[in-house]
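Long-time lurker. I teach an intro course on protein structure, and each term I like to show students one example going from raw sequence to a predicted 3D structure in token notation. This year I'd like something fresh instead of my usual example. Would anyone be willing to generate the tokens for the chain below so I can use it in lecture? Attribution to the forum is fine with me.
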Amino acid sequence: MVSWLILGDLTTSGTIAIIQLTFDTGVFYIHERIGILLNGANCTDKIKHRICRLAILSKEAKTTI
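-- Reply from a regular --
Happy to contribute to a lecture. Here you go:
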């Protein structure tokens, strides 16, 4: 929208929007992949812990009902 107001050309502003969206998506993807590589073991351990904890809480809830 801003590029259209500045440039006054819909084709150019649309191209800028597509390039920006593609670039932002790529940067986000790379950022997430680096985070997974650096903290991969920690993430799986946390997920396993939460799943086990939810299972324990679920069993406790069923026995108290």
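Some talking points for your students: The mean pLDDT is 77. The chain has one domain: 2-64.
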